[in-house]
## 1
Amino acid sequence: MRGGCRNGAGRPRQHEKVEDYNYLSISYLCRQGLLMPSTKGTLTWTRNGEKAGKVKIEVDDSASSLILMYSVRLRGAENWKEVNQPIELSATACHYGGQRKWFKCPQCGRNTANIYITTKPACRKCLKLVYQSQSETLVWRIWNMKRKIEGKLGTALQKPKGMHRSTRSKLLDRYLKLDKRLDDIFYVRIEKWKAQGWW
Ligand SMILES: [Zn+2]
């Protein structure tokens, strides 16, 4: 993923950084109660005291999808683009009961914890974003461990034919723990941004 990336024109191009984008975090929305049925709200991002983006959210009455509405202008671009993007929500069962919610990436359909705000909102993988922060190595390690488990279970984390229930259970448990760790890293960052007036 990292380095040596080429764009369509065949020129080497640096990956853009996760930190360059505003994003919606599913756990943040959950904690704030913004995924309840029929919720409407506006999230704003500020950086250094200046407005850095605004997204309107409307959750449907069964809380199975939400619509993101915003205008966005890519760096260097002249015109603003109006985006009106439905995002499906899905849930996977947690090993110890309860549910974990996900966004379904509108581009690839995979479950994702974060949707990045750009002209075509999507998950980090679709946008080929990399992490810049000090926790980059750790994030990548956790990410790769998750990928390995996804390789065994599939991205929908279903039990493959022939796999023993307890094996699946162990893998899923491990997956959710890794996920929680990633979430914590992001949570720390969002809190930090909040403290700095970034969120
Ligand atoms: Zn995607």
Note: The chain is about 30% helix and 25% strand.
## 2
Amino acid sequence: MKYIITAFTLALSSLVFTQAVMANNDYKGDYKKSYKKDYTEDYKKAVPPKKAVLPVDLVKADFAVMVLGSSGPVATSNGRAGSSLLIFVEGKPTLVIDTGSGSFKSLALSGATLADAHQFLYTHMHIDHTSDMSAMVKSLFFHRLGAGLLLPPAINFYGPDSDVPAYDSMSAYVDGHYDASIGVERYLHGFAAAFFGGQSPFVPIGHNLPFDVSSNAITDVLYDHTGVSVKSIPVFHGGTPSVAYRVEYKGKSIVWTGDTNSSTDNIIKLAKKADVLIYDTAILDNPTPEFLLMFHTTPTRLGEVAAKAKPKKLVLSHLSATTEANIYSIKKIIKSQGYRGKIIPAEDLQVINVW
Ligand SMILES: [Zn+2]
């Protein structure tokens, strides 16, 4: 009887085993079949011809900006990503400014690649401006690989210095992520070495910019080989070390305020006669809670600054559910302060060509 039970158990387990192997083989067979199907004769059919116009196709001028994210830290059903901009020079994405939550997804939808964009600018170290940094960096690796390019000699990260315990300086932030010994994403060195050959060609460099808001000195951040220049100025954002940027190319200019309550006139100085001024529009004139007045610019103050700086176009970004719902009255308030240029509410994946 014992032998019968043992034989039965063996037979049963062998049946189960055989079925498992068969299932596994079936899986492999199907996988092979679908692989072959997708990547050989039916591949062209599987990838439909491009009909829709991708956002990247809307870049027409020599100098342009694409909004990758036009919101702040609150996830809402409007689907906006956290703050992020992509600057195009001669049709190529060249600079990334802020990489807020969801900007990686926007980049994917845009059809643009980061193959030629290895300069990252950060206005401040809040999560709605930084969180997709590593996702962007790793995508940059693959975009360069796809374009048959080696990694650039360095990937540069520019952002404010810090003397506040709650915030790292830009260089400390970069080291905290990518230092080969202690960075939380240190594996990227091994990854880059494996993909690009030999020793790690991943050279991340953090650059610290002045953030003292009592100064209105403009800092020359970089002058790129493409002819792009970038300047920064400190701005007040409730005590968070923060800067705003002005990007210039062939006499044209794009300014991004980052987050600020504009309590100083620094934005007026930086944005003077800019072609495009992209502004933090997160609050109304009487926000709740009131302490938001320390962090963001009211429509009235935004109008005052715009009236004095006189940018050709004013783009309202870093929109919140509240400001998005009140965009018409915000525009009216801005105009009432004397601004006469064009006011455009930002949208994710919107392209602004600077002619
Ligand atoms: Zn923000």
Note: Residues 180 and 186 are 5 Å apart (CA to CA).
